[in-house]
Amino acid sequence: MTRCTDLLDEPTVIIGSGPAALTCAETLRKEGYKSHIIMITKDDTLPYDRKKLSKKMTHDINEYIFRQETFFEKYGIKVWLNTTVTKIDVEKKTVYCNDGKPITYSNLVLAMGSTNKIFKLPGSNLEGIYYLRDYHDAEVLYSQIKRKHVTIVGSGFEGLEICSTIDDIASSVTLLARSSHPLKYLGAGLGKEINQVL
């Protein structure tokens, strides 16, 4: 992989720090890109694998992280943590962040990822309702469910993985699904077999 050697050009700015953002930065270096790369994220940790949050309970963020800090230092990839983009001026090729400092870019990559579907129903803001999106969500969730009755809304891969992960620590687990079987997009046959296991 190429290291950053061109200090004159404006950087490539990547907004986001998920798998797509990290893959973009790594691919640029592998293809010989020598200018600065800056990843901007509102997270307070280096890029990590969110898919593992539903599979494993741990308080060690290093078990989720894709690359250690030394990797980013070696290849000249700056990661701005705790930073929110407030404005993008595409004509001036400038990004504005919550710290008030504008940054001019040569290339801009938007890789913010997806967001949770938030329920807007009566009672949906009550205590004891959790969403699993980031590492801090997982910490709160797993610390609150010991010996409690847990209901999971959603019967896709993530819902099933959470069921399996918390089965030993929750008093009971109930899975709510709109269809008659989980993983409906994989077909009724597999879904019915999973129903029998559950």
TrEMBL record:
InterPro entries in UniProt: FAD-oxidoreductase/Apoptosis, FAD/NAD-bd_sf, FAD/NAD-binding_dom
Domain FAD/NAD(P)-binding: 12-196
Pfam family, one: Pyr_redox_2
UniProt keyword terms in alphabetical order: FAD, Flavoprotein, Oxidoreductase
One term under GO cellular component: cytoplasm
Domain of life of the organism encoding this protein: Eukaryota
Cofactor list: FAD
A Gene Ontology molecular function term of the record: oxidoreductase activity, acting on NAD(P)H
Protein name in UniProt: FAD/NAD(P)-binding domain-containing protein
Organism: Acrobeloides nanus
Organism classification: Eukaryota, Metazoa, Ecdysozoa, Nematoda, Chromadorea
